[in-house]
């Protein structure tokens, strides 16, 4: 009798390669998107959202400092981040899908405040979040918006890279 086949960690990946291990920063961005999504949809108290996030499986694998900065920073600066984004989106930020809105807020926040993260990395991380959580082509929209926002938020870095 043959033993039943079990799913392997390489299933669904080309040539049997293992899925890449997510960094603590990537995990913190994913958790922050989920918290911002909840906040955008419900307007729930941030303290309750943070408390719920801390109870989630995998919380210990986050870069907790980065998660807290993203979630609390995006909520605290929502109006300012929306003002930055509004110069580069084709509609009101309130009309964006809540996932794309949350991802764009995180991308703009990192471009504005996380100067240790190269602007291209901040944009790429946001694109990956949009691919993981958003609609079919949402990542393309996120890429275009943040690429234009980077010129405003990191002009010297963008000019040096494109120069």
TrEMBL record:
Pfam family, one: NusB
Family designation: Belongs to the NusB family.
Domain of life the protein comes from: Bacteria
Protein name (record): Transcription antitermination protein NusB
Organism: Roseateles puraquae
Function summary: Involved in transcription antitermination. Required for transcription of ribosomal RNA (rRNA) genes. Binds specifically to the boxA antiterminator sequence of the ribosomal RNA (rrn) operons.
HAMAP family: NusB
Domain (NusB/RsmB/TIM44): residue spans on this chain: 27-150
GO CC annotation: cytosol
A GO term for molecular function: RNA binding
GO biological process, one term: DNA-templated transcription termination
Keywords for this protein: RNA-binding, Transcription, Transcription antitermination, Transcription regulation
